[in-house]
Design goal:
Length: 216
């Protein structure tokens, strides 16, 4: 008799298990499919992004080498960098635009170069490091002809001690002060920069040389 009850109990447990499975099978399977699909999708995306990065790196380096070659057609290569930007992953898109802006400035198309620097600096989807670099380059490319007050206002936030481009920005701020007819201010800025052990050595040495050449 105990064996019969055991068998009945086992059948009931099996039936309950079957009912539970039938009840929850669809959502469980669905969840598993979603998990597997999600993992596969993520892996696929990683693979796709990897291929995108590889393709962008290859195209960027090819354009860079072409730009460095003797007798390079710089306007055409500028177009290659600009053409690379829309399809490239974020990092390569940014450096392609910065490289295109530099080439535009190099070939005398200053207005187009400044517009590209402004475009990068204003794009909130770009890493602030590159946005600040674009602003820095905008000031550098404008220093001979830009309004000193505008240049000073743009470079000031980048010259704060906690900013990544602080040393370069302070050097530029001193040059802007010179353009504005403020040699004493320029010399003070450069002397402080030359004494700043956290600044790159090349910038410190250059700041010291420029400061020494400013009339007292």
């Amino acid at each position: 008799m105990p064996d019969i009850f055991d068998e009945v109990a086992e059948d009931l447990r099996a039936e309950r298990a079957a009912q539970m499975w039938r009840r929850f099978a669809t959502p469980v399977i669905g969840a598993l499919v979603l998990v597997i699909a999600g993992v596969a999708g993520w892996q696929g995306w990683q693979w796709y992004e990897g291929r995108q990065r590889d393709a962008a790196a290859t195209a960027f380096l090819a354009a860079h080498r072409a730009a460095e070659a003797e007798g390079a057609d710089l306007p055409a290569i500028t177009g290659r960098f600009e053409g690379l930007a829309p399809q490239a992953p974020a990092g390569y898109r940014t450096i392609a635009l910065l490289r295109a802006a530099a080439l535009k400035a190099e070939t005398g198309d200053r207005a187009a170069a400044l517009a590209l620097y402004d475009r990068v600096a204003a794009d909130t989807s770009i890493d602030p490091l590159y946005r600040d670099l674009a602003s820095l380059m905008w000031v550098l490319r404008s220093i001979d002809s830009g309004d000193p007050a505008v240049l000073a206002a743009r470079i000031a936030p980048l010259a704060r001690p906690d900013q990544p481009w602080s040393a370069s920005a302070r050097e530029l701020a001193a040059l802007v002060a010179l353009r504005a007819g403020q040699p004493a201010e320029a010399r003070r800025t450069l002397e402080a920069l030359a004494a700043d052990v956290t600044a790159p050595r090349a910038i410190r040495d250059r700041a010291q040389r420029i400061a020494a050449g400013i009339a007292g």
